[in-house]
């Protein structure tokens, strides 16, 4: 029995990073452009799928990096930092896309955050007239009004809005829409609700009306609007998400000592790991497994928690113990999560979000759609952007269009000759962080972007998983069904055969050979030397049979 999978290297496949990106950004292609120092081209490739290229370059949760195949070699690529390099080092703005002929259909979008503006972009790209209504003085939702300047500078966010405007999206600020149906009566053919999750959740404990209690989101908005809230010298922040982390770091910049209280352990914190690390570096103290139970003037009483069985979120449920302690505080900041305001006449879910039809994106009112945090609750920028794109497709269908809003570029293999990656041992390039003592003195960016040469080197680590092909072969008679290959393979290439080999074992079979990224984990882990992996080359250079790495 010889179980060989021989793929067809004429085709391009979806790399793990692109598959993991909710917006489907063509990561390997823009990385190849970067590798050759073509920063403007890289930026325009990012923008093919992502109108918020700049916002995501600074503040994305980068799920692509968790999927990157290079992590099995010597560390995932710094994909977000490379996107930032494209944004910062592009010498000109990419040429705006051609605006297609108008369809005569009009769409109103309520809310100008990442979900609403992403939908606006794609609907405009389909030829519909789009008007975005924003109740604040400037567009951007959380991006502009909550994320601190040291994480997402406004000058870069402006680039995203210039880009989105270039396709003809009309923006009307300082307009509040309370009853979305009025927009239908005004002649819009469809309405999209993308107002976000701005309603801060309450602790519901005694003393919450004390004057020293402050809402974390309100604090961040005040800071972004140029105010300097007075928080005193000792701040306690309640919460473990990114808003809590932002609030804590902002208070350090306001000169306060900060203690953050979170009811689970650090491992369960929903905030990004790098945000937690940055907060700790900046001197934020963290009290884990604790929750507030009573607020008194200048003091908060807390109870120690222990972790029980997993709850609905899949995380261990915090259970109060009998141990209590108190923290002195001049300001108590509550940042335990956000909810959604469901507009009048629209049906909500039991989670307090807007109910939609999963297939069509429609709310309980025909021709009114919803997306983003209003539907899924507080989420990341990239999830909101992806939601906007999906809902734009649904609205396009509703308006008589095809609902097809993009496809993988068939000619997207620029520079295949540069696809040969740097060999193992080239560790991920790290961004330089300013010293914590300096950065809490101002609102400037914490991390310095990559220089052109560093960005090109980091891009050179990319394995070009989209255009490199491998032949995976299992010598079934040698296999003793230990299952190590199935466990080790990040691409889930192997399955277990239904048949038995001569030794009476059910050997490994190659089920999804096209997904092999050539990490060689299976080859090294197989105790029976039954697996062989051979590189077949890239789509363009067709060096079929180039056996570079397999120790056969
Ligand atoms: S190595 Fe490159 S193509 Fe492969 S997953 Fe990582 S970034 Fe994507
Ligand atoms: S088949 Fe082997 S070389 Fe290919 S991805 Fe899986 S473990 Fe890595």
UniProtKB/TrEMBL annotation:
Spans annotated as Disordered:
406-428
GO MF: iron-sulfur cluster binding; metal ion binding; oxidoreductase activity
Keyword Metal-binding carried by entry: yes
UniProt xrefs under InterPro entries: 4Fe4S_Fe-S-bd, 4Fe4S_Fe_S_CS, DPD_II, FAD/NAD-bd_sf, FAD/NAD-binding_dom, Helical_ferredxn
Q: Kindly indicate whether the keyword Metal-binding belongs to this entry.
A: yes
Q: Which domain of life is it from?
A: Bacteria
Which residue intervals define the domain 4Fe-4S ferredoxin-type in the entry?
A: 470-499, 507-536
- PROSITE patterns of this UniProt entry? 4FE4S_FER_1 (PS00198), 4FE4S_FER_2 (PS51379)
Instruction: Please list the coiled coil stretches.
Output: none
UniProt entry keywords in alphabetical sequence = Iron, Iron-sulfur, Metal-binding
Q: What name does the UniProt record give this protein?
A: 4Fe-4S dicluster domain-containing protein
